[in-house]
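User: Can you recover a sequence for this backbone? Please restate the input before giving your answer.

Assistant: Of course. Working from this structure:
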């Protein structure tokens, strides 16, 4: 799965979500989002070029920054890392060989391929109190909040 270059974070000034491209200032440790309606990325190099207007750069709270995972929930809402989600998933019962449905909540997280047990699965998981549920096993998903 290719990850879209799209982030969101909560503005330090307005305490509202802003969406766009993420920048961390390594000198000051401050975090920013360049609002997506003012820029576009050129090619795979990730070079950001401003459109006709000056870019709108918003400082964001670092712990709220999450990348769009490239899919939407069942209601059409974009899913970002850090979202809390209610999911339904299916699992085969090893004793009866029957498929059972489960419903649980957890938060969305990116897992690099070297951290995965089965590298053929999706790069994203929902972390629950019972462990990781891979997106390939999820039958329904709904974003219900954000985990900070």
């Amino acid at each position: 799965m290719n990850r879209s270059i799209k982030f969101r974070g909560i503005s330090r000034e307005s305490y509202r979500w802003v969406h766009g491209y993420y920048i961390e200032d390594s000198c000051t440790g401050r975090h920013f989002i360049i609002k997506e309606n003012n820029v576009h990325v050129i090619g795979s190099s990730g070079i950001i070029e401003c459109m006709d207007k000056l870019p709108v750069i918003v400082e964001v709270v670092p712990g709220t920054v999450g990348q769009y995972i490239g899919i939407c929930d069942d209601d059409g809402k974009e899913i970002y890392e850090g979202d809390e989600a209610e999911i339904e998933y299916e699992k085969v019962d090893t004793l009866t060989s029957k498929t059972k449905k489960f419903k649980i909540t957890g938060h969305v997280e990116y897992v690099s391929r070297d951290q995965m047990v089965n590298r053929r699965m999706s790069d994203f998981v929902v972390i629950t109190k019972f462990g990781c549920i891979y997106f390939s096993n999820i039958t329904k998903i709904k974003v219900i909040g954000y985990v900070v």
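That completes the design. Residues 23 and 32 are 5 Å apart (CA to CA).
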